[in-house]
Design brief:
The complex is a heterodimer of chains A (320) and B (289).
Chain A lengths: L7 H20 L4 H20 L3 H8 L7 H8 L1 E6 L11 E8 L2 E8 L5 H6 L7 H16 L4 E7 L6 H5 L2 H12 L6 E10 H5 L6 E5 L3 E3 L3 H9 L5 H7 L4 H6 L5 E3 L10 H19 L4 H13 L4 E2 L5
Chain B lengths: L2 H19 L6 E3 L6 E3 H6 L14 H8 L6 E2 L5 E2 L11 H12 L5 E8 L2 E8 L10 H17 L3 E7 L7 H20 L4 E9 L1 H4 L8 E4 L10 H8 L10 H6 L5 E2 L2 H15 L3 H5 L1
Parallel strand pairs in B: 6-7, 7-8, 8-9, 9-10
Antiparallel strand pairs in B: 1-2, 3-5, 5-6
Helix pairs in contact in B: 5-6
The chains are: A alpha/beta (320), B alpha/beta (289).
The complex binds zinc ion.
Chain lengths: 320, 289
């Protein structure tokens, strides 16, 4: 696995440790004290790196090719997960996947973006950038979940909706808009977990939820920092600065009152260890469902509506 | 994304103005579509539509005057103002951009909302202002749209929104994205009380605005030749590395693709709208009684 750029010093240390181990074995010299010392240094370095990540570095983690993804999480979280496909209008969009399964005691519908792991799969899944069909499939599955009284869980991980010719011809804007409107009317709880990249309208299109959770190194933004830099600065190299200004890390999104909770990742990021993060996602979801399922259908809808109704920061003189 | 187009258009506008100023007296305007030089007074009389059918961009005041009964507009919530809560700074701070936009347009933000009469029929209206930071939607635009929707839920008069917007306002980060969900959510409530919503898409309507309330009309109408898209043409051309065909993402194209009910010339807009609201709104009779 290729290390992220800022992890290179750490990776160099690990390489050194491996070399020393090999040397010790080949030459029968006891180097264990040195090795332990360097291992300690590596651990310390890892802690230091991960405790002072910049937004741009966090984005690199959020985009890591080994991040946990929707289909893997569905398998890890659920018993009897069965994938369902197609929008019943045009085609099956592999950038958004979905299916049914059992999460603990609950029958649930899982929907999420899927970027793809290797090159071939990435191309098939269009790097997780959906066409309108993806949103329409998502809505079809949400309505089915509503019909069969199954809570909905959505996993967000997309650079954004696909800016392509066919996507426009088939109504990308309409497809996203419709989801935003109709998700408000769904009677079952909707939980969203931003697991990687929350890219703009392409993310929001399946994220109108009662609760929004974010993995520690996930991001959520109105535009990619690269896009923002090239538009506002006319200079793509300002992306790092834009990443700071846009306030897109999990901490920022919680601070702004949009996300409800951060799920801590193992040291070094969730891409190193899916098991632990899957467990913590599962526990968090079960906890939220316990809360929400105490509410009536009307209360579930109202809670979701009021959450989104409250978003916005502006000034207004108090009425006299 | 499609704010790109706003910047492109801003560049264009500069040349527009330059060609306009070439001619003494500032009484003439050049049509960017057919290149004819037009006498400003004639153009105004023709609702700012060229003989070649090019629809010039117009201010909210002009639009309200053209499409609603004389003096019937009553503004709601003019006092809500944007704040620079992210302390956002690109080449300029958001605070300064806001100040300049307010001075230029004399408006608090990129939309006016209120009630008006349409051939004597009461309606709720929202009219976006592209000249205010590209008509971008931040918290104020989102809040005002939501409030005019709530006004319609309350008074049961139809809602008509004229859009002209490059999309979400980047300077408000994630909060601007959330306005898409907020406005769309309110429209779901409007649908619950069976009050009609007519969306009139004007040049340009792109990005987060098209992917929320603009595309959600019971009736979607567009002015001729308007750019209507999710991703702007430049972004698409960069992505697919191809030139887009002429007319791609224009009103007539969207009509053909099934995204609009009709494309209506500015001259016919008022009568079309009044006929539609009269036919659609189930509440007028009850209110009249
Ligand atoms: Zn002309």
């Amino acid at each position: 696995m290729k290390p992220l750029e800022f992890e290179k010093p750490l990776d160099d240390l690990y390489t050194k440790i491996d070399e020393l181990k090999q040397l010790s074995q080949e030459s029968n010299i006891d180097l264990s004290t040195d090795i332990t010392a360097i291992e300690k240094r590596a651990e310390k370095m890892k802690e230091d790196i991960y405790s002072s990540l910049t937004p741009a570095q966090i984005i690199q983690i959020a985009r890591h090719p080994n991040r946990p993804n929707t289909l893997s999480l569905a398998q890890l979280l659920c018993e009897e997960f069965t994938e369902l496909k197609g929008d019943r209008c045009f085609r099956d969009d592999p950038s958004i996947v979905g299916g049914v399964g059992k999460l603990g005691p609950h029958r649930v519908m899982i929907i999420g973006h899927q970027k793809g792991a290797d090159t071939k799969e990435k191309i098939k899944r269009n790097f997780g950038m959906p066409h309108p069909e993806g949103y329409r499939k998502g809505l079809r599955l949400m309505k089915m979940a509503d019909k069969f009284d199954m809570p909905i869980i959505t996993f967000i991980d997309t650079p954004g909706a696909y800016p392509g010719k066919e996507a426009e011809e088939r109504g990308q804007a309409e497809a996203i808009a419709r989801n935003l409107k109709e998700m408000i009317g769904i009677n079952v709880p909707i939980l969203t977990v931003v697991i990687g990249e929350g890219g703009s309208g392409g993310a929001l299109g399946i994220a109108v939820a009662n609760r929004i959770l974010m993995l520690e190194y996930a991001v959520y933004s109105v535009i990619s920092p690269e896009g923002c830099a090239s538009i506002l600065f006319r200079d793509a190299s300002r992306a790092e600065y834009a990443a700071e200004k846009l306030k897109m890390t999990a901490n920022d999104i919680v601070e702004l009152g949009i996300a409800d909770k951060i799920l801590k990742e193992p040291l070094g990021g969730a891409h190193n260890e899916w098991g632990a993060i899957a467990t913590s996602i599962k526990n968090a979801l079960l906890e939220e469902l316990d809360d929400l399922l105490k509410l009536s259908k009307e209360e579930i809808k109202n809670q979701r509506y009021n959450k989104f109704r409250s978003f916005g920061k502006f000034k207004e003189p108090k009425p006299a | 994304m499609s704010i790109l187009d706003w910047f492109n258009k801003n560049k264009l506008k500069k040349t527009d103005q330059a060609s306009r100023l070439d001619i003494p007296g500032d009484l003439w305007m050049k049509c960017p579509s057919c290149n004819d030089t037009l006498y400003l007074k004639d153009l105004e009389q023709n609702k700012k539509v060229c003989h070649c059918n090019y629809h010039f961009r117009i201010s909210p005041e002009e639009r309200i005057a053209m499409h609603f009964d004389n003096g019937s507009f009553e503004e709601i919530e003019p006092q809500i103002e944007a704040i620079d809560f992210l302390k956002f700074k690109d080449t300029q701070s958001y605070e300064i951009r806001l100040k300049k936009a307010k001075e230029k347009t004399k408006h608090a933000d990129a939309i006016l909302i209120g009630t008006a009469k349409l051939n004597h029929l009461p309606v709720n209206i929202g009219v976006m202002d592209f000249s205010f930071m590209g008509g971008s939607m931040g918290s104020v635009v989102g809040e005002k749209i939501t409030r005019i929707i709530e006004n319609a839920i309350d008074n049961k008069f139809p809602l008509i929104i004229f859009t002209s917007s490059g999309g979400a306002r980047m300077q408000e980060g994630i909060m601007s994205l959330m306005q898409m969900a907020k406005t769309s959510a309110a429209l779901q409530k409007l649908a619950d009380v069976h009050v009609p919503y007519i969306s009139v898409l004007c040049d340009p309507t792109t990005g987060g605005t098209s992917a929320s309330f603009a595309m959600l009309g019971d009736i979607n109408i567009a002015e001729p030749g308007a750019l209507i898209s999710f991703a702007g043409p430049r972004v698409i051309e960069q992505t697919i590395r191809q030139k887009l065909p002429k007319g791609f993402q224009r009103s007539e194209f969207l009509l053909e693709k099934g995204m609009l009910d009709m494309v209506v010339k500015r001259q016919n807009m008022k009568d079309t709208l009044s006929s539609l609201v009269k036919t659609l709104n189930p509440h007028y009779e009850r209110v009249a009684k």
